[in-house]
């Protein structure tokens, strides 16, 4: 297979801080191939703490020499790719084989487009893609040798793994579970469920609890250099040794068997483009990289197969297959969601017009546009978010489906959850806050000192419209019933009109009218009378036919499409975190009681948002 004479690789000419010394070189010459070596076109590589430890601290000690401008050092031990050339004595592998490899200290340099490695350090797994395969060798071998070569773990024994959510710890848990050992591990509280999903039987919160008693026949194995001097064993337990990895294709083949048997799986945090290797090391050094969280193959979600009465057609299904993740998408574990009138409208009246298609038994439709939760997986091109982020989102019409345990959505629609809201509170926000914001800011273009009349100040959209307007410095007048007067006063409305007893305002006295869906004929029936001749009228939605403007006020339009985006949600977050706007929740329902939430919604008497808690 053809290959270029030169290639790109990361190298360093001096020991020192990685971010200063590590450079990408674009004209590195191909090495001559030894008789027992293979040349690999590297598709994926991974970064490890040992990389920067060698560069910044222990390189001279471990390698016995220093890099220079004439002889720069490569970096990286793990690689996955395709063999493009083989030495004359290579027996096992051939050109075209998909492989993964670990290099010894004498040959590291996998963070490059090509790598020459002895055949003995290379093998070929069958069920991993290149990214997955590149994440395996060093950490899996370290865990494998610790569990089996050193601790010699047997079925029925108990192992305590310190650092179960570390890259090595994750494999150690899985190897131990695979041989039938009982696994106890330490991890932070937020990672407890993750390590349990890998097979841990018991998790000790490393921030709050001490370890357990150890049997006097126990064995202690560490991957870290021992603190000196070493205290002698007091109770008979044995200090085996530190784990020094001795790479070989045989050991990689043993690991491959575990992986192909699905007893062990690779876990990836983030995939970076080659040009962003320094970003990967920066992330590694923070030790904040939360592992890609596991998730089930199927999940529960509400769907409908026909348009019609929501209470009749909407069903909870418990075997929905996980969607494939696109490169710019994120997978969300939904913690809470909310019900909205648009859900009912799409199912019962407007679905065909808005969506341009109908549901069926083979292609049922999902429901719901608001949710909050956690990111558990990110696509290869997702840049802003990371696994473990607490988020909230409004899905666009094309991706409805938040009334579910899991959701796949383009990253552009997902924002970090306001820091001062829990998941239920955050789920109450997106669609109503964005609708209010679109009406007040984008359509009405309200300015400080103006006056706005909001029809329906106690509606979910109206409550945010009142707060956003007040925060802008606008005088807020709103309509509501007498039972909701105190509620809208608490949101800082300046004047309240009881629509059950009073009509609106003096002629031509307000700059904007925002109808939150409660006075559909307002433009035709009298809104023009209260608007100044420069006034703006916004509604969701309009009653037809539309009467022409009589006095110069402008019918700006209907707020149908709020064009959801993370950027707009970030703006909303600023209002929330600064205390200028707050959510109002009427009731929180369990996931199984969604139909009760819709029944309440349809009464039009909920004082605030109806939230569904998917996972407590």
TrEMBL record:
Protein's name in the database: Enoyl reductase (ER) domain-containing protein
Originating organism = Phytophthora aleatoria
Residue intervals of the Enoyl reductase (ER) domain: 16-290, 309-612
GO MF: oxidoreductase activity
Q: What is the lineage of its organism?
A: Eukaryota, Sar, Stramenopiles, Oomycota, Peronosporomycetes
Among the Pfam families in the record, one is ADH_zinc_N
Q: Which InterPro entries match?
A: ADH-like_C (IPR013149), ADH-like_N (IPR013154), ER (IPR020843), YIM1/Zinc_Alcohol_DH_Fams (IPR050700)
